[in-house]
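pinning this so it doesn't scroll away 📌
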Amino acid sequence: MNWIYFAIAGSIAQLVDGALGMGFGLTSSTLLLTLGASAAVASAAVHAAEIGTTLVSGVSHWHAENIDKKVLVRLAIPGGIGALLGATFLSSIDLSSSKIFISTLLLFMGFLLLYRNLFSTTFQMSSDLQNNPKFLRFLGFSGGFVDASGGGGWGPIVTPTLMTTSSMEPRKIIGTVSASEFIVAVSASIGFLLNINKLDINWSIVGGLALGGALMAPIAAKLVAKLPRRPLAILVGVAIIVINGVRIIQG
């Protein structure tokens, strides 16, 4: 495939991520599957591209003092372990089965994204929740595993969960989750590289996706305050549900 298609996919995914604070992996994985990439290749390409985008994002949030270092460590380490295992799992299952698996997982994530934005809640648990090691380790591991095995999901799982179960400042949640995603992306990429003999990766996918995301990143940062967050999230959620629903029906 022409790398330009993947550059466009990366641009669209980064625009969504910049507006919602999440969704690069979820959106780009869906687009790559639609363009014909296999499940494992799509996830491997997304995470390789995310190494650069999450590094830039993490450094930016660090300079802006949007990061809680304690929460970062407690999320990132188990998140990296989960991502490594998730990448190994996806690389090991039969490709015909992985197509249905990843589409089903993305379908679920689409419903979750839609639900989070249709039915917002102001409920919050104890302000000490973000300092609960066991909770953060479980959340990080689960988010990392789902993210790597499904091609995306770290942001849609971890960010809303912390938003609705803790009293952390929203900017600190977004910054901390974004910075910790760098570790998740690196760990997932290592997992795919360890199983490189099982994958047929077209590196033009990785390059195109990374290029498109990098070019769109500064534009997305400027548009984030202007784009309507909730309607866009609902639109993206519906699109992901429809696309992956059709893929599951078609088998």
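📌 and the second one:
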Amino acid sequence: CNGCNHTCIFCMNRSMTRKINKIKKETYLKIISEAKKLGVEELGLYTTGDPFMHKDLVYFIKKARTLGFKYVYLSTNGGLATPQRLKEVLDAGLDSIKFSVNAGSRDTYHLIHGSDDWQKILNHISFVSEYRTKNNLPTKIYISSIITKFTKHERSDIFNIFSDFVDEIYFVNCDAQQGHMFANEDK
């Protein structure tokens, strides 16, 4: 799906002029079947849009598992990743989920993401962590955060708020500095 429910200031998706489209089941199955025959072992279910915008996301994960992909993952802003949908993708066999969280406070999040989903995101990430623990799932949970001039002062806030819920937080600096990976050693 190339549609997204957020309009992040650094993402070109908000300037996209092509029609919003969602891949059809038949096309998806043809592509991943061919990829598997060519030796592809990992499958990332995301592109310029948010995967949770597609109603068939669980089907896509299950089909990838059926075909024998060793690692199936996705990246999301998390706004549409409700607890019910999160349960479904985790139970379908998702190996990892990465949340794109590009601020450490509600106001800055709204500025960066163009959406007031801050509390939803906190709840959804917390839910994934708790569900994983409760059900003894091997799923990895990550956060990536693009650091801009608007968010560089919130880097430690992002780490402090989310580090107990995720396995790693990766910061990508837009100031031409390298990003840093922080691992939560307890997970």
